[in-house]
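ARCHIVE CARD
CATEGORY: sequence design from structure
SOURCE FIELD: tokenized fold
FIELD CONTENT:
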């Protein structure tokens, strides 16, 4: 009876690289037009004045200036008021 038993399934065999998400430029730092400020999945942070958002939710600078993160109160569709973080660029 020399045979190998069934190996079963292995679940943890994939090794994909990290996506390098997160804040790339922090508040008070200078930024040029088109530079990436935040790389994110979903709208964790929202684009504010002087920024634009791309299809994969990356926030870019639309103008040259200084980066700032502002917490603002917004109203959801249900009527509830919540605070959300907005990324803004102001000319220096």
């Amino acid at each position: 009876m020399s045979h190998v038993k069934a190996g079963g399934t292995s679940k943890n065999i994939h090794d994909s690289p990290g996506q390098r998400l997160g804040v790339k430029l922090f508040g008070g730092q200078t930024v040029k037009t088109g530079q990436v400020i935040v790389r994110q999945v979903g709208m964790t942070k929202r684009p504010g004045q002087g920024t634009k958002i791309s299809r994969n939710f990356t926030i870019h600078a639309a103008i040259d200036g200084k980066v700032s993160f502002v917490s603002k109160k917004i109203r959801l569709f249900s009527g509830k008021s919540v605070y959300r973080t907005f990324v803004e660029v102001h000319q220096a």
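CARD ANNOTATION: The chain has a mean pLDDT of 92. The domain at 22-90 is CATH 2.40.50.100 (OB fold (Dihydrolipoamide Acetyltransferase, E2P)).
SHELF: design records, drawer C
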